Amino acid sequence: MVNLTAARTELDDLIRRAPGTVGLVIEDLTTGERLEWSPETQFLAASIIKIPILVEGLRQAEEGTVRLDQMVPVPDDAKVGGFGILKELTSVTSISLLDLLTLMIIVSDNTATNLCIDVLGVESINRTIASLGLTGTQLQRKMMDYEARDRGLENFTTPADVARLLRLIATRQILTPEACDLALDIMARQQVRDRLPLYLPDDMRVAHKTGELSGVRHDAGVIFFESGPVIVVALTQGFSDQLSQSFVGGDASALIAQIPRVLLKHQRS
């Protein structure tokens, strides 16, 4: 387990000095001990919204509404900018739903995400979000949809909601155990590793999803410490340094990377 009481003082100081808004939830799944900072504050979800989309994809596959091996067309007009590789692959005209879900998570592929939304349906995704008690979370637009954003449509979530969803997955309380394990396996293959995993040992498993917009950096996942799994949800916004205003690095990413470092320091057997 991690001595969260001992870690709290360092984390308090880290958040107090932050030049932006930080929402943080840490929960030791072995002991049930939990630390919170602004857990109910609503943040722009950025790519964190892709976690409930993943859950909905696995839920519909379990229900038989879709198949993970079903092939989904990839038309040129579905390709969007931002993160991802599908937009660069001219020979890929169709791809399995499972591969779309995987690309959506491990490289935060925006084209893959939008295709998943098309297959699964916005209403179905939001229905599942609501049914899981994620009251501060909503999918209102696709990725890179600037027209919808200009109309005031955004995707939102809270640290408490993300922590709840991760707990349900990690403790196998939603879907089948196999589907929960698949979700964690996909998240553990995340290739953006400049936040939660940055200062952790290379062989430590971290099943997580990042998110970024201008001034916004997030990372949320389950860290499998030797002493047991710990949920860490770190959402940030309002960071004004030059790198944080872009899409790579910056003070917010650096802050998030320090959180597991503190927890590792206070790990106890």
UniProtKB/TrEMBL annotation:
Reaction equation(s) it catalyzes: a beta-lactam + H2O = a substituted beta-amino acid
Domain Beta-lactamase class A catalytic: 23-236
InterPro entries found in the cross-reference section: Beta-lactam/transpept-like (IPR012338), Beta-lactam_cat (IPR045155), Beta-lactam_class-A (IPR000871)
Superkingdom of the organism of origin: Bacteria
One Gene Ontology term of the molecular function aspect: beta-lactamase activity
EC number in record: 3.5.2.6
Gene3D superfamilies cross-referenced by the UniProt entry: DD-peptidase/beta-lactamase superfamily
GO biological process: one example: response to antibiotic
Family indicated by similarity: Belongs to the class-A beta-lactamase family.
Protein name per the record: beta-lactamase
